[in-house]
Design a protein that fits this description.
mainly beta, binds copper (II) ion, 9 strands
Amino acid sequence: MHSNKEAHAIKAADIVRDPSDLPAPIGERAPAVVKVTLTSPPEGPVGGVVTMGSMTFSPANITINAGEQVVWKNTSTYYHNVVDDPGRALSRVDVSMPSGASAFGSALLQPGATFYHTFGKPGTYRYVCTVHETGGMKATVIVKPGPMLASK
Ligand SMILES: [Cu+2]
């Protein structure tokens, strides 16, 4: 084992090099063009955005087309969630969905967090934030049979 006295301390000056002192590149190199395609979040076009305030979803009623997704953004300083699941809502009557649709829900969303859900089946979806359900934090997504379905 080396003693601390003998160990060579690496200083910044040891690894700094003059850029013009670098070896020649290996092979032919030229600036590369890298194409990046920015897409909307997965699962389909965004039909609407709902912000979560201190105790509200805004807008409380939103209408989209089937196949589109809703984006929820927690713009408040509170934790919220988005729940359309009778098994998770405090009161089953606060949530609903068309028959054949699957229940959905987010985890607890911290301030600044975002949640997405794509709606396949037309109908009315009533959902809540279970944290503030008793405080009236409830809202509705109405899904119309959209052009995406009509064209199929
Ligand atoms: Cu909430």
